[in-house]
């Protein structure tokens, strides 16, 4: 790919012309450098404690929590990884990301869709709406600047698709768009952040489509067929803990590998899920598995603000033990990312633009004082539901 002639070449940093390949992820620089940046940012946004909660569970996949008491959304952010260093980094960066969308985000423009006309370059009705929604072309909305990831063109997106806070808002606030962290991500560079955000948007679109289709989500897959030492190590760790793992390959209109991981055990019967998407089959798979372990630890620790209240059935009894997994899963086709983050981004953006029939859009939320690139990616035409967030 010719990244030097890209219409988005202005956002590329020198480190985006390569990548540091790590177990379960790709980054622009080494973990120690990223962790130093994240540590400085953590203090600036009010993180008071970073805790290793891995040993609260029997599985042993590294999981950390970052505590930010003054948060306007979640006071506890959680992170997972193949190594403790990567899990700690994941937790801190999630907390830093939330700080950026919690801040007051003034509307640069207030207008209706009808008044903006062709200035937007996309269909606002293709954005994820809440239920019910009062969106119509004459409704005045607050707008913030954004850029198309296809050609770099300037546009606007509704402020409420970006900002997120649990503060009580004064005045009339009609229900219009689904507020969520979908597409919120950070990184060492803007390109790294945008990639993480796009992978999440694509992953949740695939999971939402599979969920709404009914029946089994995707096709059972056999992690052992990928031939990945990292994935094999995770599977062995889970098996030693007496926990059952089921992996399903879920189709995406982008063609990217998307996986769902489901873990259960007799001692703690509820099913816990994790999702993953990436150009690399190995990274997509390991993300899904580590996220399933992280989800389970959320309930074990009880520290998160967003745990489901109906975790048990109506009688307060634990869920029934799931049926045993029988028969082999389908083989996983190895897919690989490119040699550079810049090439990865061009590939994923092109796939998303075709799959969703709209260019994905990016809002740069980076605060120079905090010093961490943070973005919100919004992909008109993509699907997302609360069940997969």
From TrEMBL:
Signal peptide: none
Annotated Pfam families: YcaO (PF02624)
Domain YcaO: 79-389
Domain of life: Bacteria
Protein name: YcaO domain-containing protein
């Amino acid at each position: 790919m010719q990244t030097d002639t890209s219409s988005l070449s202005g956002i590329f940093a020198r480190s985006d012309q390569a990548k540091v390949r790590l177990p379960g992820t790709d980054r622009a620089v080494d973990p120690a450098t990223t962790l130093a940046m994240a540590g400085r940012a953590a203090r600036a946004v009010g993180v008071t404690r970073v805790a290793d909660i891995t040993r609260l569970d029997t599985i042993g996949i590294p999981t950390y929590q970052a505590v930010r008491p003054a948060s306007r959304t979640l006071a506890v952010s959680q992170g997972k990884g193949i190594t403790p260093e990567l899990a700690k980094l994941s937790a801190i960066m999630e907390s830093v990301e939330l700080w950026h969308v919690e801040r007051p985000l003034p509307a640069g423009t207030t207008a209706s869709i009808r008044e903006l006309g062709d200035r937007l370059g996309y269909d606002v009705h293709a954005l994820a709406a809440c239920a019910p929604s009062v969106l119509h072309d004459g409704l005045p909305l607050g707008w913030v600047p954004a850029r198309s990831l296809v050609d770099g063109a300037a546009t606007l997106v509704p402020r409420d698709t970006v900002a997120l806070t649990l503060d009580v808002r004064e005045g009339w606030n009609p229900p219009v768009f689904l507020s969520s962290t979908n597409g919120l991500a950070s990184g060492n560079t803007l390109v790294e952040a945008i990639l993480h955000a796009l992978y999440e948007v694509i992953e949740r679109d695939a999971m939402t489509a599979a969920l709404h289709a009914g029946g089994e989500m995707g096709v059972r897959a056999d992690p052992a067929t990928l031939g990945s030492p990292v994935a094999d190590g995770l599977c062995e760790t889970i098996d030693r803990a007496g926990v059952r793992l089921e992996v399903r390959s879920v189709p995406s209109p982008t063609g990217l590998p998307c996986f769902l991981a489901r873990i259960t055990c007799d001692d703690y019967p509820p099913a816990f899920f994790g999702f993953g998407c990436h150009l690399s089959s190995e990274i997509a798979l390991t993300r899904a598995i580590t996220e399933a372990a992280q989800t389970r630890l959320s309930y074990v620790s009880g520290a998160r603000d967003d745990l489901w209240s109906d975790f048990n059935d109506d009688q307060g009894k634990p869920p029934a033990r799931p049926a045993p997994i029988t028969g082999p899963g389908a083989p996983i086709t190895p897919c690989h990312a490119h040699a550079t983050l810049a090439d990865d981004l061009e590939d994923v953006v092109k796939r998303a633009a075709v799959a969703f029939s709209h260019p994905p859009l990016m809002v740069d939320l980076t605060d120079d004082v905090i010093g961490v690139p943070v973005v919100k990616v919004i992909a008109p035409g993509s699907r997302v539901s609360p069940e997969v967030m």
